[in-house]
Structures are given as structure tokens and as C-alpha cells.
Amino acid sequence: MAKNYTGTEMILNINSILPSYALIDCGNGNKLERFGDKILIRPELSATGIQTLSLHEWEEMAHARFTETGNNQGKWEYFGDRFTEWETMLPIHEKKLAVRLQLSSFKHVGIFPEQAVNWEYLLSQKPGNNDENKLLNLFGYTGIASLFAAAGGFSVTHVDSLKQVVERGKEMMHRNNLDGIRWIVDDARDFVRREMKRGNRYRGVILDPPAAGKGSKGRFWKLEKDLAPLLADIKTLLLPDGFLIMSLYAGFAGIPYITALATSLFADAHIETCDEIIGQTAEGKSISHGVLLRLIVHG
Questions:
Q1: Counting Cβ atoms within 10 Å, is residue 189 exposed (0-12), middle (13-18) or buried (19+)?
Q2: Strands 73-78 and 85-92: what pairing?
């Protein structure tokens, strides 16, 4: 069994961490959110129950609404002037980053606000010298975790299979006058295996793997098949007392799954899990943001 295993339910009011974001209302399979000065309506499976405000009130407040058309695709409807991107500030404690958000054809905007709890964690770490300050961000998306890690002193390697989101990350790095981030367009599994052969080691690894997807070379990723061997490889990259952070959103990947996986692969690690990260409105309505694993390996 893992050492010091703990499981907790984290009621995460993201507003208290990230004032530039707010979950305004949710219900009937949708959520009303504010990102900086833009308010959006987007589908949300965990938004059960009845919304607090009426649909008319939502539409009066919102700048755009995403409607799904099938196969993870959809379209945006605008309430006023059309726009595709905008900039907002993300303050986490003493660090403040300018980020560029963008409406996509699959409802995402370039940021997952619930990840703010991980940005806080990265900023709380004290990078050392040489390998002690190296961080690997897999499935890194637009790179906001990479930006906060670099702002906190880490030397970051950011890996994602989509060139366009990696390019957006690079632009935001320059916009914030940061350096120390290596941007890689690659399949996470292939990159990790090459790092193993090169003998590279990391103080920390953070990953946010999808339930399913296609890598940069057309290879398919399926969480229930590919996650365990990837984590086994990642284990060889972690330095003694190194840490791993992983978020999971797939419906089957709850605490029993994540706990069994972590304890089988990291038997001597200090493991912490969060049973459910919950975003809340001011009225107490909530949506689920999946589960979270953090572990520290012991040398």
C-alpha cells in the first residue's frame, strides 16, 4: 500500500482563487461562466437540476453561446458583436499572467479554471538547481500551467500534440516576458520514451490526459488502455522526492480507479486524491470538475 494515502472531497470555489473567472449559474445541462469581461453559455453534463436564473436572464447577460452539433463539434451563437478571441489577466497570489482566450469549434476557450488549484501548487514549490528545477507538462494544451511554473522558477518542457495550441502558448510566454519553457509538438507517450532513453529526469510531472484522442502522428489515445503504461514510464523520469499531478475527467475514472492505479505503480509514494473538485456559484449550485491525484515519490 502507498504511504500516507489520503482521500478528500475538495469543495473548490474557483472564484476565491481566480477572481477573473466566475461560475455564475448552472443547470439543465448548461453553465453560465465569466472569463474576464466575456460571459459564455456552454454545455455541461454535470449541470443537473434547475438553473437559478431564467434562460432569458442568461441570454441578456451572455456574449456567446455554444451549441453542440455532434461528434465533439458545435457552433457559437452571439448576443451582440461577434468575436473569436480576447485577453484577460490571471492573478494567482503574487503572480499575474496575461492570457489569450479563444472560442473553439469544440466549446473550449483555452483555459480550464479548475486547474487553478494546480497552478497554486506549482507556485508553492521551491525549484532547486539543475534537474531539481525541471518540470514536464504533458497534454499541456495552451500552456497556462507551464506559464505559472516558469513564473515560479521551473525550467519547463511543455508537450502537446496540437501545433496550434502550442503556438498560442509560445505567444503568451512572450506576452508575459517569460522564458525557460521548451515547447514540443509530439505524442506524450513517444516523448516520454525518448526521455527515458536519454536519461533525463524531472522534479515534477503534470498531466491532464483526455479520455480519448489522436496524437500528432495520428496515433489514437484511449485512457483505459494507455494511461497505466504511460504512468509506469513517467515513474522512471521522476527524481527522488519528485512530484506528479494528474487530473482526470472521464466518467469511469473515479477515485477507485485512480487509487488502484497509483498504489500499484507508486507503492512507496505519498499519495493524495481529491474525490471531486466542485465549482460553485454564489447561490451554492455546483458542477463537477473530475478527480485529482497528487503524489510525491520517495527516494
A1: middle
A2: unpaired
246 CB neighbour count, 10 Å cutoff = 25
Q: Which three cell numbers stand for residue 7?
A: 482521500
* Number of residues assigned to the chain: 299
In this predicted structure, which of 54-68, 74-88, 237-251 has the lowest mean pLDDT?
Answer: 237-251
Number of domains in the chain: 1
d(CA 9, CA 15): 18
Q: Does the structure show a pLDDT above 90 at 196?
A: yes
Residue 229 is given by DSSP the state: H
pLDDT at 15: 67
Percentage of residues of the chain with pLDDT beyond 70: 93
pLDDT of 236 > 60? The answer is yes
Give the whole-angstrom CA distance, residue 20 versus residue 114: 13
- What does the alpha-carbon distance between residue 175 and residue 99 come to, in Å, rounded to a whole number? 8
Using alpha carbons only, what angle is made at residue 208 by residues 48 and 189, rounded to the nearest 5 degrees? 140
Other beta carbons within 10 Å of 91: 12
Q: Contact, 90 vs 96, CB < 8 A?
A: yes
d(CA 232, CA 234): 6
Q: Which three cell numbers stand for residue 253?
A: 475514472
C-alpha cell at 34: 465569466
Which residues have CB under 8 Å from 247's CB, separation 6+? 114, 115, 118, 207, 208, 289, 290, 291, 292, 293
The CATH number that applies at residue 273 is 3.40.50.150
Give the residue numbers spanning the domain of 212.
3-296
The set of cell numbers assigned to 185 is 509538438
